[in-house]
Design a protein that fits this description.
Aspartate Aminotransferase, domain 2; 2 domains; globular
Length: 463
């Protein structure tokens, strides 16, 4: 194997015990959970890769910040530290804390989207798509075509298809496009990065038609690191310089800070123009849905930790190690002939379940099949990023056919060691060897009307 594991740029000073149940116990637990990984108790999971959101290990400085947090209801010192950090890193005039990313979407999207509007993105993740639809609008994806071929290696498979985007704008009419969202990195496409040039091109089209551009910034630091490695213009730039260049192109950003800011809870809204007419409606909606503007649904200790995490997530030594973990696991899969969205993305490895289970149609949810098999095999909890997650058409209620059938191994930051990554690889190899024995997937017996994969009940399809 050509790729070596990158040594951790930190020491471990606290541990949390975990245990692996027996195979029989795991089979019983997933059945009791109605074959939905979200229904499993955390104590019954050995390696938890369900998400990289809020599952990170905070640093000694961040834990010290937790103790220093100012819990004043209005105008706490921790709030001002966070706002100062946000303005410094992103060079935006207004920073609004909220409790997480979907809260940022709920607060912001309601000011610009409504019935009859559409929103366009390189790819909407499930919760973002849901918040577009909850406003009465419709979400349209415009990722570049190379992203749809997991085997094809390209440096920026997360990019927006700008020509397609402009065609959709003209089809619906610019006045009916409430928002363009560019997600960095592109989660649904496999954690794939977006180039600065692509952001510039998207921004130019938005400016041409007077359409607001929002950056979904959950993994902005990982995206900036890929740009430094792959975009010639920025090879000598700092991560912070790259971040400022990206965000200068947009009008606003929404962020789940539970990813690249390495915290357990938090989110942000940023508005570039300090005099924007959007700011007062955002403050009003924040007070209604989240809490007073200077805490936004967060405790003072959360605000303090987030102010520190914004900077820690930009550290190049940490980012080299972070991306190196993905490259190590991907290299082991390469050796075993296991397909994934390549080159590997920033926050996880997206295994191509469709390629592993060629015998399974999309409506039997191969991504969910592999997720369940990983839990049975080694106590690893992951999730489907495919047709099961995509759900039903909001108008026809028919099952949608996703462009991908991935099983996402989302890696928490600073949590798992090389030995854990070897367990992941060994489990996938074992499943690949018996993949032909799986004749059918799963069917849904109950589902909620929106974001079904969090709660749905499934059963195996019998012969």
């Amino acid at each position: 194997m050509a790729v070596k594991y990158i040594p951790e740029p930190f020491r471990i000073k606290m541990v949390e015990p975990i245990k692996m149940l027996t195979r029989k116990e795991r089979e019983e637990k997933i059945k009791e959970a109605n074959y939905n990984l979200f229904n499993l108790a955390g104590q019954d999971v050995y390696i938890d890769l369900l998400t990289d959101s809020g599952t990170n290990a905070m640093s000694d400085q961040m834990w010290a910040g937790i103790m220093r947090g100012d819990e004043a209801y209005a105008g706490s010192s921790s709030y001002y530290k966070l706002v100062e950090a946000g303005k410094d890193i992103f060079n935006y005039g207004f920073i609004q804390p909220v409790h997480q990313g979907r809260a940022a979407e709920k607060v912001l999207f309601g000011t610009v989207l409504s019935e009859g509007k559409v929103a366009i993105s390189n790819m909407f993740f499930d919760t973002t798509r849901a918040h577009v639809e909850l406003c009465g609008a419709r979400a349209i994806d415009c990722v570049v075509e190379e992203a749809k071929d997991p085997a094809k290696r390209a440096p920026f498979k997360g990019n927006m298809d700008v020509k397609k985007m402009e065609k959709i704008i003209l089809e619906y009419g610019p006045e009916n496009v409430g928002l363009v969202v560019i997600t960095v990195t592109n989660n649904s496409a496999g954690g794939q990065p977006v180039s600065v040039q692509n952001v510039r091109d998207v921004a130019a089209v938005c400016k041409k038609y007077n359409i607001l551009l929002d950056i979904d910034a959950a993994r902005y630091a990982e995206n900036a690191y890929f740009i430094k490695l792959r975009e010639e213009e920025f090879k000598d730039a700092s991560i912070k310089e790259i971040v400022r260049t990206i965000f200068a192109c947009a009008d606003m950003f929404t962020m789940s800070s539970k990813k690249d800011c390495v915290v357990s809870m938090g989110g942000l809204i940023g508005i570039k123009d300090a005099d924007s007419p959007l700011i007062l409606p955002i403050k009003a909606r924040c007070i209604s849905f989240e809490g007073f503007t200077t805490y936004g649904g967060l405790s003072g200790r959360d605000l303090e930790a987030l102010a520190l995490g914004l900077y820690e997530g930009l550290d190049e030594n940490y980012l080299r190690y972070r991306i190196g973990q993905m490259e190590y696991l991907a290299a082991r899969l390469d050796d075993a002939g296991i397909a994934y969205q390549s080159p590997v993305g920033g926050h996880g490895v997206f295994v191509d379940a469709k390629a592993m289970f060629l015998q399974l149609p999309y409506y039997e949810f191969p991504g969910q099949v592999l997720a369940i098999e990983l839990y049975k095999e080694a106590g690893i909890r992951t999730c489907d990023i495919g047709s099961y997650m995509l759900g039903n058409d909001p108008d026809t209620k028919e099952q949608l056919h996703a462009d991908f059938e991935f099983t996402r191994l989302a890696i928490p930051r600073r949590v798992y060691t090389q030995a854990h990554f070897d367990v992941m690889a060994d489990a996938l190899i074992a499943i690949k060897e018996r993949a032909h024995e799986i004749k059918h997937g799963y069917k849904i017996t109950w589902e909620p009307p929106i974001l079904r994969h969090f709660q749905a009940s499934l059963v195996p399809i019998e012969e």
